[in-house]
Design brief:
2 copies of one chain form a homodimer. Chain A is mainly α. Helix content of chain A is 69%, strand content 0%. Chain A binds a DNA duplex (30 and 30 nucleotides) through residues 7-8, 10-13, 16, 37-40, 42, 46-51, 53-54.
DNA sequence: CTCTCAAGACGAGACGTTACGTCTCGTTGT
DNA sequence: ACAACGAGACGTAACGTCTCGTCTTGAGAG
């Protein structure tokens, strides 16, 4: 029997929750993830430390939630990929957009922070996949299935594998800073992946 | 003009250096990277804290060096890949070995710790590529060039791209715990990559 | 080639600081 | 009313700097 007393979520202060999430996001951008402390988040949010410890189990969880809140609401129909009937062209558009996104310095710090936490915390990793990665991947798979029906991709292709071949090299190059992320690189990945999964 | 006084490396105590590196490696295995402190390393090594701060600029740098020391000496001819003339078979052997390595719990903690540091410290990332990744990649490229001469891989293939297609999906799957790492998976990556780069 | 011997790296640990996570306090809001 | 709240005190841990003597070492003297 766990003696843990559970706070009542119904009485939770939405104002404080928002202030904490905002403060966390701001601080990560300003001083970098490693230098952010829970005390600093509490001070910036004008909140008692206990209010943070009551609802989150670590700094990583707070920061993770603050990022999650950002991309919420983007989970409607707006995330459907373009479908012109030309899978190569459509994928290149999407991959080039991803490259551009990774090049934005404003995304650099938060995404690296996110990855740092995900690597070391299986719980957060699961939450990340469930709330962020899986929905986005599913949207991409919708487009890939359409390509399968059009005979542009092998009908028996493992779509998870397709996505890995497309995105993992890009992701690794960015994470390790092991090479330039250019439009040409994005195009090359699309060409190679389509060749690998050609019917 | 930097006013920093530089310690004289010629007078450095090799005994202390080794003790620190050993202590760091042990502690990471025992309690996990996040919970390792410089004070604990110093205590375990029987060394003054200043001796650590004198030669390393952060905990990450110490731990990184301790891993680096492990794989030193493996940089001879012993790291050449098998070359039976059959690139598919040879790559599958190597990839299956990599999968097995990643599955070893003893490697789990150190490699995740290493990646945590590399993501957030461009300096360590550069050192990692120079001292570890590049030499290993070069050995793999030797085998790939042999395959190119044998007409098993397109002569104009970008070998860095070949390696990324092979390893990045594996690496990402392990890092994010987003799927099982099996021999079948390793084989699939080899098959797909070879198809993508077929002449 | 051996013998000094000062420079400086060393082990130990004190120091002030920061942040941790827990724990009261009154206060506020539902 | 009661539980979550803002505020902040508390003991602990580790930070990075610093000052002690002590021990090592390499360059010059013999």
């Amino acid at each position: 029997m766990s003696t843990a007393k559970k706070p009542n979520p119904a009485r939770r202060s939405e104002r404080s929750r928002q202030a904490i999430l905002d403060a966390a996001r701001e601080l990560v951008s300003e001083v970098g993830y490693a230098k952010v402390s829970i005390e600093a988040i509490a001070a910036r949010a004008g909140v008692g430390k206990q209010t943070i410890y009551r609802w989150w189990r670590s700094k990583g969880a707070v920061v993770f939630d603050s990022f999650l809140a950002l991309s919420e609401g983007a989970h409607g129909e707006g995330m459907a990929l373009p479908d012109t009937g030309d899978i190569e062209a459509d994928l290149k558009v999407v991959m080039r957009a991803t490259v551009a996104e990774f090049a934005d310095p404003d995304f650099e710090a938060p995404i690296r922070a996110l990855n740092t936490e995900i690597i070391n915390d299986p719980d957060l990793a699961a939450q990340y996949r469930e709330k962020l990665a899986d929905p986005v991947d599913e949207a991409k798979k919708v487009r890939l299935r359409s390509a399968q029906r059009a005979g542009q991709i092998a009908a028996d292709a493992d779509l998870d594998l397709v996505l890995e071949l497309l995105y993992a090299p890009l992701y690794q190059r960015w994470l390790h800073r092991s090479g330039p992320l250019t439009s040409e690189y994005a195009d090359a990945l699309v060409d190679l992946t389509l060749k690998a999964f050609r019917p």
